[in-house]
Design brief:
single chain; 202 residues; TIM Barrel; 2 domains; elongated
């Protein structure tokens, strides 16, 4: 059974994380984990690094290289060469899928290979039950993990965290309390660490 860490801090989590994104992704690949998430505190600065690092490993795979080759040649109207099925079975299987999709008039994005390691974009958001966000006192703060499930979730998460950063207090950007009742579309939410609302409930 595959195991994936969904709560990770990188060196973008000031005073709480020291792991470089590149080291985190390499460790996940070495441990044959199918995915890795980053959930830095309050911000999503590490997302581009995570995406690029995962892509570096994914695009080295034979099926990805074949897919890129086939897609580029089809787009330029050139013939694609069939790889040797015995010497390059992975590339050949991808070639077959690409040819079948092309002949059926489908977009080759539909047969894109599965990634070796999938990046999961997330954030450990700050949550406060104080809707007023009054600046005359320090608000009651809790933590909550938000993970993007798809493109819609990623866009919604970025928008929400950007808005929270603008409205934030004490450099801790709390998103709207509505996420406690229902996470934004395309996102999953967890109770986070010991500073989550559920773990601290009496």
């Amino acid at each position: 059974m595959a195991f994936v860490h969904l709560h990770n801090h990188t060196d973008y989590s000031m005073l709480d994380g020291a792991t470089r994104v590149s080291d985190m992704v390499k460790r996940a690949v070495d441990q044959k984990m199918p995915a890795v998430a980053i959930t830095d505190h309050g911000y999503m600065y590490g997302v581009p690094d995570l995406d690029l690092e995962c892509a570096k490993y994914n695009h080295q795979q034979a099926d990805w290289q074949q897919w890129f080759h086939d897609k580029e040649n089809y787009e330029k109207g050139r013939q694609i060469v069939e790889p040797d099925a015995e010497k390059e079975p992975v590339a050949h299987a991808q070639w077959e899928a690409d040819v079948a999709a092309h002949e059926a008039g489908r977009d080759l994005d539909e047969v894109k290979p599965r990634p070796l390691v999938k990046p999961i974009f997330g954030c450990e958001a700050y949550f406060t039950p104080d809707d007023s966000l009054s600046r005359d006192h320090k608000p009651e703060l809790y933590h909550m993990i938000l993970l993007a499930k798809n493109q819609t979730g990623y866009v919604n998460l970025m928008q929400m965290m950007s808005d929270a950063a603008v409205r934030g207090w004490m450099k801790k950007p709390p998103p709207p309390r509505e996420i406690v009742r229902a996470p934004p579309p395309g996102n999953n939410a967890t109770a986070a660490c010991v500073t989550g609302r559920n773990p601290r409930a009496r």
